Amino acid sequence: MRDPLADHPDLTDEAWIREATKRARRAARADRAPRPRRVRRRPSALVVVGVVTAMLLAGAVVFRADLFGDPVAAADRAPSGRVDRERPFVGSLAEARPDGAAGIVVPVAAPVGAYSAEEVAAAYSAVRDLLIAGRVDGRALNEGRFDALLAGLTPESREHVRKGLAGRSALAWATVIEPGVRLLPVPPKVDGAMVAKVGDGGRLVVDTDYTFAYAFDVPGALTVDEYVAMLRYQVRFTVTDTGLHPTSAEGYALAMSCAAMSRGRLAPLTPDDVTLVDPASATRIDPFDHTQPLPDTGSCRVE
Questions:
Q1: Per-residue model confidence as pLDDT tens digits over 133-152
Q2: Residue 250: how many CB atoms within 10 A of its CB?
Q3: What is the C-alpha to C-alpha distance for residues 194 and 104, in angstroms, rounded to an integer?
Q4: Membrane-spanning residues where (predicted)?
Q5: Average pLDDT over residues 154-175
């Protein structure tokens, strides 16, 4: 049976059809229940970004350098081949320390303040992953790729740290190797500890204190001071729902190039660096002794 409205003049008028469709849509929207207004809240971690930025600009992120032992002049160098390339840490303070990620041990988690043991365990695991990504992973050390490190940070701090990695503050966040020098194909030696606490504003924080020793490929090296450089850094991470937020960092390097250090890069001590070292302030310290406070002064004449 034919629809009697099929030939109605209004239903064949395209302009009328368009207007009728618009009216129907407006009526349908008017009948819908109003949506609740979404209130956008800034995460509390955004305040922490300001703390990090202020500390960096104020110089509170401390980069100190001390020399372990006496620099070796070029004339005193032994012929190449004296370094055991498979066991380069023999004879150094790092010799007995764990290799690579094995040195970053997650503590047994317990409740901290209002945070459950499960939340603390998750925080420890995230911090461990971040330290490995920035200090141990071969992609970071050999290729300068810090994607995994940046991925573990909050969106607010990610760009800040990304810029820091290109400048003088780089060593506070990761180990950036000086261009033109190479590491030996062995993992760094690592030791230290982490502990969870309740920080400012009741937020969960994880304080870390770790030392990392790196063996460089230095032909003709005579002593471990010439090819093993070490970093000890204390970093506090604030735990948020969107990642970790580094809120403070201070530390020092040992037996490293002062010139490279001034650029935020790590390289072994060379004869050219001797003129940058103040012998009067050079001290013998053990960077793996975490019961000792960080030194107040360094031996490099450049900052």
A1: 999 999 999 999 999 999 99
A2: 17
A3: 9
A4: 45-63
A5: 93
- Please give the DSSP secondary-structure letter assigned to residue 183: B
Position 180 pLDDT exceeds 60: yes
**AA letter at 100:** G
The answer to whether 275 and 287 have CB atoms below 8 angstroms apart is: no
pLDDT over 90 for what percent of the chain?
A: 53
Domain ranges of the chain: 63-281
User: Tokens 């400012």, residue?
Assistant: 200
Around Cβ 35, how many Cβ atoms within 10 Å? 6
- Taken as a whole, the chain contains a residue count of 303
* Long-range pairs, 77-85, Cβ under 8 A, ≥24: 77/220, 77/221, 77/222, 77/226, 78/220, 78/221, 78/222, 79/220, 80/219, 80/220, 82/220, 82/221, 82/222, 83/218, 83/221, 83/227, 85/184, 85/185, 85/186, 85/217
Q: Which of 145, 100, 129 minimizes the C-alpha distance to 237?
A: 129
- Alpha-carbon distance of 160 to 169, in angstroms, equals 11
Rounded to whole angstroms, the Cα distance separating 244 from 127 reads: 8
Which of the pair, 207 or 59, is modelled with greater confidence?
A: 207
Mean pLDDT, rounded, of the chain: 76
